[in-house]
Amino acid sequence: MMGIEEIRRIIPHRPPMLLVDRVTELVPRRRLVGSLTVTGDRALPMSLLLESWGQAALVLIRHDRPMPDVLTDGVPVAGVFEHIRFGRPVLPGETVEHHVTMNRLVADTAFVTGESVVGSTVVLRVGRLVGAMRSVESLRASLDAATRESRAAAPAQPAEPAPAASGAAR
Fold first, then answer.
1. How far apart are CA 71 and CA 48, in angstroms?
2. Taking the mean position of all CA atoms in its chain, how far away is CA 15?
3. Measured between alpha carbons, how far is 99 from 25 in angstroms, rounded to an integer?
4. In CATH, which superfamily holds the domain spanning 4-148?
5. Is the pLDDT of residue 47 over 90?
6. In b/e form, how buried is each residue of 58-95, taking b as 16+ CB within 10 angstroms?
7. Residue pLDDT, tens place only, 147-165
8. Rounded to an integer, what distance in angstroms lies between the CA atom of residue 67 and that of residue 90?
9. For residues 7 and 2, what is the distance between their CA atoms, to the nearest angstrom?
10. Domain residues of the chain, as ranges?
11. Three-class HEC string of the chain
12. What's the whole-model pTM score?
């Protein structure tokens, strides 16, 4: 139904961080089935399995409002992941299939759930993801404010001691 080129028109991720190869089922604003075939010689790290599922969720959330450029279209932000359960690792050569269900969409905030499977084995369950879109400007402002607060709260650095004199006095 949808390959990498179509996926790239919807979400801003690009190789090597584009972690959805294909979408085989899409019911707008309801559900999606997408997949990733693991390449290389190591198991897919669990953090990247969750990222891959999140990208599939983003395709479901944004398919009717593509956002290929974060500078103009906004940045997708995962606000909350809850009740995450990992199963066995996904090995090279295996295809992991992501099942995503949209429970609610309020403006630019989505509530989704789902799981990932290899064959009939569940390798990831996501109890809930709350994701939202934010402008680059609002994220920069938040980062600047957080940096200022962090610096203000940091204890003063003690002065460095003078280096010890080397050698004996003459």
1. 24
2. 14
3. 9
4. Hotdog Thioesterase (3.10.129.10)
5. yes
6. bbbbbbeeebeebeebbebeeeeeeeeeebeebeeebe
7. 888 888 877 666 666 666 6
8. 29
9. 7
10. 4-148
11. CECHHHHHHHCCCCCCCCCCCEEEEEECCCEEEEEEECCCCCCECHHHHHHHHHHHHHHHHHCCCCCCCHHHHCEEEEEEEEEEEECCCECCCCEEEEEEEEEEEECCEEEEEEEEEECCEEEEEEEEEEEEEECHHHHHHHHHHHHHHHHHHCCCCCCCCCCCCCCCCC
12. 0.82
- Specify the residue for token string 């279209």: 73
What are residue 130's phi and psi, to 5 degrees? Answer: -110, 115
Residue type, 58: L
52-76 pLDDT tens trace: 999 999 999 999 988 877 778 788 8
